Amino acid sequence: MNRELVRTATLFIALLALQVAVLDNIKIGGYITPYLYVLFLMLFPFSYGSFSFMMTAFFLGLAVDTFEFTGGLHAMACVAVAFVRRRSVTTFLGIPRKEIYAYRPLDGKNLGTASVLLFFALVFLHHYVLYFFEAMSLSAVFSAAWNAFLNALVTFVVSVIAVFFIKGRSARM
User: What is the pTM of this model?
Assistant: First the structure.
């Protein structure tokens, strides 16, 4: 079996299990929950193609929705990120379309300021879609943005720590 496929499936299961078993029970300040499972969307290899990524993102979000009883909000937020990730990487990071399949997201040599800002922007997009559609009101545009920003900031910090743990662990293997 393909080593990259095993690594991707293991990451999917590990982040999902950590999210539903541990992180969903954490409420910082009463409403901030780190959604570490979003890291999977950033680390998913481009070599699998857009359709595979969209389907995987949908099922990841659906699995989180199943455990959190959120009725499809996480699936919608994950698909939104999956929809814009490839285009945003080619546009903002300047990766040519022909070379996107060899690009390794959040890899040490690809990790620069632009990559980190793009990663944060995609995490913010996920959280904004999640909180805006949870409120389901145009009057909640700014409060959803504020909640999304605070949650994205916490998720980003937790994700950076997790990336260093994952990369350090894979370097020892």
Answer: 0.86
